[in-house]
């Protein structure tokens, strides 16, 4: 299956799932609004409004997906895929707004309480709504994860929180039906807090996508394995993926090759790797830089081994790569990756540089503290 076919299939899944969510939420909103008005229940009315906001979230998801499919143009040569992140951010904002609104209304009902009146039919409908929202939320999240849609996952998470909220409303309705005690306003405060927390977390996850976050370790590992399969490659490092939408990744990578390769051989290898990565992962490598590996003299190999030992003896050093010795110019180049968890990264790096310079005073050292990506 081609990348374009996968993308088209993804769009169909998102739209179909969103349409199911819209229809379900509109039906639930209608039933709950009727119950809320008849029973004078603020909790049920808020629940109905929340279902309408869920339907709106699904509409936003569809619109975002359609806009993200727009073809690249002169103004946006890499396409409109990032619109999906914006739609997920809008949905997170709606969830946050719904939580704040629910909190305000619940506090009002604590200050001026009213005892609602529920019928057996009302209780049954509320219970069915809990089950429907739980099933719907689980379904939407599953589909969102399958097609890597942040908007769907956010909508599904919102639906599951709605199920929790509806369950709280149902328990309060039971209590009010058979006693004179009404706790729905207090339960509403707790549920509103949960919704606000979910909205903040959704917004944080989406902002991470917009700002740029670490590449999925498993995906990075698979891409590097594909690159290392090439017979000319001795190592793959510094893989960076830039996201222009959930299914639009553009990358760059450093590959280590023997210093005996000529320009024609490197060009052929580069085209071969680019094709392999795109075919297997659907990712376009727009930048493929070269690390030259010393293979012509034993002294350079020994220097590499010694400096690698010096670096890796320090706690926090994850990797040393990009190593090259020029015997003619008496220079040594290498990159060191130090764990971000170490607060003394600069000090560790300085110690490594000092030890290497002391071990090889006749060489000029060009070290780089590389990014842990």
Structurally, the number of domains stands at 2
Shape assignment: elongated
CATH class of the largest domain: Mainly Alpha
Number of strands: 6
Strand order of the largest sheet: 1-2-3
Helical proportion, percent range: 55-70%
Proportion of residues in β-strands: 5-15%
Largest sheet: 3 strands, mixed
Number of helices: 10
List key phrases describing it:
single chain; 373 residues; alpha/beta; Alpha-lytic protease prodomain-like; Alpha-Beta Plaits; 3-stranded mixed sheet; 6 strands
Summarize the model shown:
The chain is α/β, with parallel strands linked by helices and 373 residues long. It has helices spanning 3-39, 42-68, 83-111, 120-146, 150-178, 184-211, 217-228, 263-281, 298-312, 345-359, and strands at 235-243, 249-258, 284-293, 317-326, 331-338, 364-370. It starts with a helix and ends with a strand.
């Amino acid at each position: 299956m081609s990348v374009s076919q996968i993308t088209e299939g993804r769009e169909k899944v998102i739209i179909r799932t969103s349409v199911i969510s819209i229809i379900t939420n509109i039906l639930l909103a209608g039933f709950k609004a009727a119950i809320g008005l008849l029973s004078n229940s603020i909790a049920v009315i808020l629940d109905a409004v929340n279902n309408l906001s869920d339907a709106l979230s699904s509409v936003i998801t569809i619109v975002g997906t359609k806009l993200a499919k727009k073809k690249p143009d002169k103004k946006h040569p890499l396409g409109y895929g990032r619109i999906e992140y914006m739609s997920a951010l809008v949905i997170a904002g709606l969830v946050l707004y719904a939580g704040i609104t629910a909190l305000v209304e619940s506090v009002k009902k604590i200050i001026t309480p009213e005892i609602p009146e529920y019928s057996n039919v009302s209780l049954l409908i509320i219970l069915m709504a809990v089950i429907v929202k739980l099933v719907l939320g689980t379904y939407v999240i599953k589909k969102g994860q399958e097609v890597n849609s942040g908007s769907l996952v956010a909508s599904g998470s919102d639906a599951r929180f709605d199920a929790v909220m509806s369950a709280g409303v149902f328990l309060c309705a039971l209590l009010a039906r058979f006693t004179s005690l009404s706790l729905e306003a207090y339960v509403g405060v707790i549920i509103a807090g949960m919704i606000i927390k979910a909205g903040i977390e959704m917004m944080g996850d989406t902002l991470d996508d917009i700002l740029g976050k670490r590449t999925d370790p498993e995906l990075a590992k698979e891409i590097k394995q594909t690159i290392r399969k090439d017979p000319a490659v001795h190592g793959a490092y510094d893989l960076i993926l830039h996201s222009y939408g959930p299914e639009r990744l553009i990358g760059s990578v450093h590959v280590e090759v023997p210093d005996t390769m000529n320009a024609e051989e490197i060009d052929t290898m580069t085209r071969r790797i680019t094709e392999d990565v795109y075919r297997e992962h659907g990712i376009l490598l727009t930048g493929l830089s070269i690390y030259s590996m010393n293979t012509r003299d034993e002294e350079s190999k020994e220097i590499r081994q010694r400096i690698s030992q010096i670096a890796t003896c320090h706690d926090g050093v994850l990797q040393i790569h990009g190593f090259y010795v020029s015997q003619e110019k008496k220079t040594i180049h290498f990159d060191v990756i130090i764990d971000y968890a170490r607060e003394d990264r600069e000090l560790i790096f300085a110690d490594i540089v000092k030890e290497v310079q002391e071990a090889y005073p006749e060489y000029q050292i060009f070290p780089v503290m590389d990014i842990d990506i």
